[in-house]
Amino acid sequence: MNERIKQLAGQALDKVVPYTWTRLDYDEIQKLQEYFAELIVRDCIGVVKGGSFLHDQAPTAIFARECSDAINRHFGVEE
User: Fold this and answer.
1) For 34, how many CA atoms within 13 A lie in the half-sphere containing its CB?
2) pLDDT bucket at 26, cuts 50 / 70 / 90
3) How many CA atoms lie within 13 A of 74 on its CB side?
4) How far apart are alpha carbons 67 and 29 in whole angstroms?
5) The pTM is what?
6) Contact of 48 with 40, CB cutoff 8 Å
7) Cβ-count burial of 26 within 10 angstroms (0-12 exposed, 13-18 middle, 19+ buried)?
8) Dihedral of CA 72/75/76/78: which sign?
9) Exposure letters 38-77 (e unless 16+ CB within 10 A, then b)
10) What's the CA gap between 7 and 13, in Å, rounded?
């Protein structure tokens, strides 16, 4: 999991459910963070890829693929 995702997930857990740290073990929290982050990243990639384009090679379609690939590389999520 990307270091930035770990930071954001930890920040979210601290803010929303601070008691989680005392009720879940480290491995459970880590699995939750990883899965949650993957869902967000996959959803973002899906939004970019899911646009309606007239032609697959249209500049907007090519740009959308490049954006989704960049998001995927940045967060290190396997498709």
Assistant:
1) 10
2) confident
3) 13
4) 30
5) 0.56
6) no
7) exposed
8) negative
9) beebbebbeebeeeebeeeeeeebeebeebbeebbeebeb
10) 10
The span from the CA of 79 to the CA of 77, in Å, is: 6
16 pLDDT tier (thresholds 50, 70, 90)? confident
Tokens 């954006």 locate to 67
Q: Give the whole-angstrom CA distance, residue 27 versus residue 38.
A: 16
Q: How many whole angstroms from its chain centre is CA 17?
A: 20
Residues comprising the chain, all counted: 79
Residue 73, amino acid: R
